[in-house]
Each structure stands twice: as structure tokens, then as C-alpha cells.
Specification:
By secondary structure, the chain is α/β, with parallel strands linked by helices. It is about 35% helix and about 25% strand. It is built from 6 helices and 6 strands; from the N terminus they run βαβαβααβαββα. Helix 1 packs across helix 6.
């Protein structure tokens, strides 16, 4: 069975509730969520979250499609080799890539961030996103990148959006 693994960005717990419900309803798939309830530079807690995600994936007999929002996209590129064997693809939503800011470089330096992951990656940005501007959201390894109308936390017609993203190759 294929499940969705949703890795949230920073402090968007309520957004996660809505998105999990929308993803589940749109795809009919079970969603496992890992919320990030702490700040950008709290790398010790981010490393703990990565360890929890690795444990779930490594201990599961299921396959996963990872949907990673914002900083969750950085965590999705920081998993163990064994974890990636359980992932069919990673979908990055407004996740920062190629950002030339010191805070970004500091975050990826402290995590086990990989410039290459052994699974297909799709990325997308949002034209009205003031937090991670769409020009920084193209993952360098993306087999597909698109920009959509929306903001960092609001996607128009979310159910249709998620259905298209997730079921495109599921």
C-alpha cells in the first residue's frame, strides 16, 4: 500500500490539519504527518524529527510519497539511505532550494542535507509567496517543476491541486 508522508514546514500546525484532510480526501490515501513545531535554527530538534521520519520509513512495509512543505523539503533531503528505499517520489511545496541567504546555508550545514537523493523529485513554487519566493523553489534535481497561483500557505483549489500532484504518477 502507498501512503502519503507529509513533512510540514515551521509552525504551520493548523495549515497541516487542513492540508492532511484535503490530501486524504483528494487521493483516498492515508496521510502520515510530521509537524515541525519549532524555529528555523533549532537544528537539534530538526535532527530529532529526521530520526523519527527515518524510523517510520525504515520500520514500514509500505511505500510512501513524500509531500514536503517549506523547510520540510530540506528535511526530505536529509533522510537515511534505507529510508529512501521506501519512497516512490518526493514532492516539494514552496521548499527553499539554491537560496543564497546565510540562514539557509546554516540550516543545511547542520543537517545531513543531500544534494542528490535516489528518488524522483518534483518541486513547485507559488507566485504570490512572500516567504519563499518562487524563484528559489526549483529543486536542482526536479524531474518536474511548476509554479502555481497561491501563497506560501494557501493554494487555490487545494483538493484538485493535491490530486493532480500526487496521483500524476502514483
Amino acid at each position: 500500500m502507498t501512503k502519503i508522508l507529509f513533512i510540514q514546514g515551521i509552525h504551520n500546525y493548523l495549515l497541516g490539519d487542513r492540508w492532511v484532510a484535503d490530501v486524504s480526501e483528494a487521493t483516498g490515501m492515508e496521510v502520515v504527518r510530521f509537524p515541525m513545531l519549532y524555529g528555523l535554527l533549532e537544528s537539534e530538534k530538526q535532527l530529532e524529527l529526521i530520526a523519527q521520519i527515518n524510523a517510520l520509513l525504515e520500520g514500514s512495509n509500505d511505500r510512501f510519497i513524500v509531500v514536503a512543505h517549506s523547510l520540510g523539503g530540506i528535511l526530505a533531503r536529509s533522510l537515511s539511505d534505507t529510508a529512501y528505499t521506501k519512497i516512490d517520489k518526493i514532492i516539494m511545496l514552496a521548499a527553499p532550494h539554491q537560496v543564497p541567504f546565510p540562514w539557509f546555508l546554516e540550516v543545511v550545514e547542520k543537517l545531513s542535507y543531500r544534494t542528490h537523493v535516489p528518488v524522483p523529485v518534483e518541486s513547485c513554487g507559488f507566485y504570490l509567496d512572500p516567504i519563499v519566493p518562487f524563484r528559489y523553489t526549483r529543486d536542482p534535481e526536479a524531474v518536474l517543476h511548476r509554479n502555481y497561483l497561491g501563497t506560501h500557505t494557501q493554494v487555490f483549489d487545494r483538493k484538485r491541486f493535491f490530486r493532480q500532484l500526487i496521483t500524476r504518477s502514483a
